Amino acid sequence: MSEFSPHISPLHKRYRQDLAMPESWNETLDIILSHRSVRGYLPDALAPDVLPAIIAAASSAATSSNLQSWSVIAVEDPARKARLSAIAHNQKHVIDAPIFLVWLVDLNRSHKIAELHGEASEGLSYLETFLVGVVDATLAAQNAMIAAESFGLGSIFIGGMRNDPLAVAAELDLPPNVFALFGQCIGKPDPARPSDVKPRLPKEAVLFREQYGFDEKAMAAVQAYDARAREFQREQGMREQDWTRQISKRVNSEASLDGRHVMRQVLMQLGFGLK
Ligand SMILES: Cc1cc2nc3c(=O)[nH]c(=O)nc-3n(C[C@H](O)[C@H](O)[C@H](O)COP(=O)(O)O)c2cc1C
């Protein structure tokens, strides 16, 4: 079921179910379905033309009202990566990866553009506008992930930037109305620390037709996933635990947000109106 099973179809690897491959398939789907987060990197620098290609892919994502309300900071300085790693609760891959991207919700640029034209920028102080920035930055980052993987590189997103957004803002010299949404390691995967495709919920749990329908059948599909998640954990030498149990622990209290329950106040400190 892992690297050692080359004949398993991409669909089977993703869902660990016996599913017929659709007639229509292509190499783009092969790349998307073989995504796995990579936590072990070789120190090799990226070829110089790789980052521009990754950013061109990011810039090709759709963007709400063409606002393009994201930016990204490429961090290569080892000392800065080490400080960002510390903020992310010492995730070593942030240091080991040759490049660490920090994806930003960037409403500063729109503020400056409004100023340029002598306009007010009241529309930027609403929760809706912040959401637009989150959506835009996320779509851009996911395109960057796929682009990196298309080069045979490994990558992982790092939500740990939100452990201390004010410290990240100081480290990266962010102006008001800019928020480090998450980071992204990119580099050559260390073959000594292979990762594998992690199974996902079956479509019966996530795809509804015409109207929302999370019924008993969908819940049964969710529960059937527990065994597949356990199988993956076993293969990876991870501690075995039902996925449904992990999720219920992850949502059970304010404490389960691990200090991030203050995000609204922090965002307002960073200048966002969130009206
Ligand atoms: C926004 C975002 C933030 C994440 N932050 C972290 C992180 O800080 N550390 C980490 O090890 N994985 C992080 N991940 C990776 C997820 O744990 C991973 O995507 C998930 O377990 C599914 O595994 P896969 O990506 O290998 O399929 C993050 C993923 C996303 C989408």
Structural description of this entry:
- There is one protein chain.
- With 275 residues, this protein is of the alpha+beta class.
- The chain folds into two domains: 1-18 and 197-258, no CATH class; 35-195, NADH Oxidase (3-Layer(aba) Sandwich), CATH 3.40.109.10.
- 43% of the residues lie in helices and 11% in strands.
- The protein is built from twelve helices and four strands; from the N terminus they run H-H-H-E-H-H-E-H-H-E-H-E-H-H-H-H.
- The chain is globular.
- The structure holds flavin mononucleotide.
- Flavin mononucleotide is lined by residues 35-37, 39, 88, 91, 156-160, 182, 198.
- Residues 35-37, 39, 88, 91, 156-160, 182, 198 line the site of flavin mononucleotide.
Please describe the topology of this protein.
Layout lengths: L9 H6 L11 H7 L16 H10 L10 E6 L2 H10 L4 H5 L2 E8 L1 H9 L10 H24 L3 E5 L6 H7 L6 E10 L15 H4 L9 H20 L7 H8 L12 H7 L6
Antiparallel strand pairs: 1-2, 2-4, 3-4
Helix pairs in contact: 3-7
What's the pLDDT, averaged over the residues? 96
User: What is the rounded Rg?
Assistant: 20 Å
Strand order of the largest sheet: 1-2-4-3
- CATH-derived architecture of the largest domain: 3-Layer(aba) Sandwich
Tell me the helix content.
40-55%
Unreliable spans: 1-6
Could you say which structural class the secondary elements and strand pairing correspond to? alpha+beta
* Number of β-strand runs: 4
Small-molecule components bound: flavin mononucleotide
Distance between the termini: 49 Å
Largest sheet: 4 strands, antiparallel
